[in-house]
Specification:
The protein has 140 residues and is α+β, with helices and mostly antiparallel strands. The protein is built from 4 helices and 7 strands. The chain has one domain. A hairpin with a 2-residue loop joins strand 2 and strand 3.
């Protein structure tokens, strides 16, 4: 037969171990996800516009505005109206790179729409580019 003192002690130890597990973390470990800081880009050159309603490779890829070979994307800070005022000018643009979206194969309705023939060569990502946070004309 157990002494009452030992019984109380065992009950307390059991409660402490149970409480320790609850408080101390018997939870499943959450994977650590590192946040990658977005890379800031600085591009300069001639700003060109490729309207959506014009059949061009740039427009098909969602590159409606280009500075040299780099697509640029209007934002709330620098909307399309402001970019329009700089078309044909040498500019310096700063912003964060946006990776775009993977293009899905066309549906039967879209199959007749024109699209670049070199999809395998360039990959099928649309809408990538620098999200414009600032724009300035190049000073000569």
């Amino acid at each position: 037969m157990m002494k009452p003192y030992n019984k109380v002690l065992l009950n307390r130890l059991f409660l402490l171990s149970l409480l320790g597990c609850l408080v101390g973390g018997c939870e499943a470990e959450q994977p650590i996800v590192e946040k990658i800081a977005p890379r800031t880009e600085l591009v300069s050159g001639l700003l060109e516009h490729f309207p959506e309603n014009v059949q061009s490779t740039q427009a098909w890829y969602g590159h409606y505005y280009m500075v040299g070979d780099t697509p640029v994307i209007p934002t709330k800070e620098v909307p399309a109206e402001i970019l329009q005022s700089f078309i044909g000018s040498e500019v310096v643009i700063q912003g964060v790179w946006h990776p775009g979206e993977k293009w899905n194969p066309p549906t039967e309705e879209q199959n007749s729409l024109p699209r670049p023939t070199d999809l395998e060569q360039h990959g099928a990502v649309r809408g990538d580019g620098v999200k414009v946070s600032s724009i300035a004309p190049v000073k000569e």
